[in-house]
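Retro notes (design track)

What went well: tokenization of the new backbones is finally stable.
What didn't: we kept losing track of which sequence belonged to which structure.
Fix going forward: every design gets posted as structure first, then sequence, in one message. First example under the new rule, 330 residues:
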């Protein structure tokens, strides 16, 4: 036997008992959970883990057998995950997202949400005033081949916001699916464009605001402003808030990228990314809810008062969830 083989054999013989003992405990934990271990075994496991880590360090330093090093790496990884890994189940993590992670992440956006709201509302007001002053300003913002144009009659416009029950058919579900896809793409662009220092995100928010302002001005000029806003808000509270939050997240990413503060840029971006990830997942859920309200609720509910009540409840619910709940938790 060569000196190298002899060294490897002695190294393994002196320590293998501890490795096998650690492996056996980890196998039991994997099969039945930590409750399968008694108190002494739970106390013993961290010590065995430290022994395995020390053995791995030594094996790497003296370049022992690669198979042995691979075995120890796997064993130490399993031990690390048990000792230092999260102690929550899937459902605990799931409920924690809605109870804590999502609302606190939105709450922490703060100034970025105000800026995103200001950009959207400001350009909506500009487009509203432009279209009222000259209807030709509607066409740069209105949807291509949309029947809702300044040339449409009042009755034609009214028909677009009140739907007969005979028209409810299967197209509502298709419509909801299309709206969810479109709005999700807009939100994802707001997130993604944030990596370009947030400027494209601001432009996208401004353009969405212009579209909103142009359509409100169109219906307002025909005497249908109250009716159109009610039709819009039944889903618009949730949808617009989701897009505003997506824009705020993009702006926050851009700000962190340009001005990381005292942290290293990579560390600041990693911290921001974890928060933005929570916001992104929440926005997708909000847009799914908005698509259901848009594809079904606003088409099936033709009473203006009911539409405004649903919008008010939605607004108060989201504001309480995102801004009152985190403050009480803090």
């Amino acid at each position: 036997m060569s000196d190298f083989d002899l060294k490897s054999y002695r190294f393994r013989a002196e320590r293998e008992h501890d490795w096998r003992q650690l492996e056996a405990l980890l196998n039991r934990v994997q099969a039945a959970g930590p409750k399968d271990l008694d108190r002494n075994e739970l106390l013993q496991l961290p010590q065995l883990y430290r022994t395995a880590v020390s053995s791995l360090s030594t094996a790497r330093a003296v370049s022992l057998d690669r198979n042995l090093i691979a075995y120890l790496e796997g064993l130490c990884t399993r031990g690390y995950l048990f000792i230092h890994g999260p102690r929550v189940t899937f459902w605990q993590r799931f409920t924690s997202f809605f109870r804590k992670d999502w609302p606190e992440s939105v709450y922490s956006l703060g100034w970025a949400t105000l800026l995103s709201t200001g950009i959207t509302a400001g350009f909506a007001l500009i487009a509203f005033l432009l279209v009222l002053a000259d209807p030709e300003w509607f066409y740069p913002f209105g949807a291509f081949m949309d029947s809702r144009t300044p040339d449409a009659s009042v009755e034609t416009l009214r028909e677009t916001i009140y739907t007969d029950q005979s028209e409810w058919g299967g197209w509502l579900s298709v419509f909801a699916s299309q709206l969810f896809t479109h709005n999700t793409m807009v939100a994802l662009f707001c997130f993604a464009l944030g990596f370009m220092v947030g400027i494209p995100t601001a432009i996208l928010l401004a353009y969405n605001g212009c579209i909103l302002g142009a359509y409100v001005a169109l219906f307002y000029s025909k005497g249908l402003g109250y009716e159109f806003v009610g039709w819009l808000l039944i889903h618009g509270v949730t949808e617009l808030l989701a897009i505003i939050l997506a824009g705020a997240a993009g702006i926050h990413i851009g700000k962190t990228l340009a001005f990381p503060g005292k942290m290293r840029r990579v560390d600041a971006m990693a911290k921001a990314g974890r928060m933005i990830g929570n916001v992104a997942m929440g926005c997708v859920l909000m847009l799914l809810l908005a698509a259901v309200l848009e594809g079904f609720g606003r088409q099936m509910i033709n009473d203006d008062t009911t539409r405004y009540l649903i919008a008010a409840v939605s607004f108060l619910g989201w504001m309480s969830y995102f801004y009152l709940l985190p403050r009480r938790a803090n």
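Added context from the reviewer: Residues 265-300 form the longest helix (36 residues).
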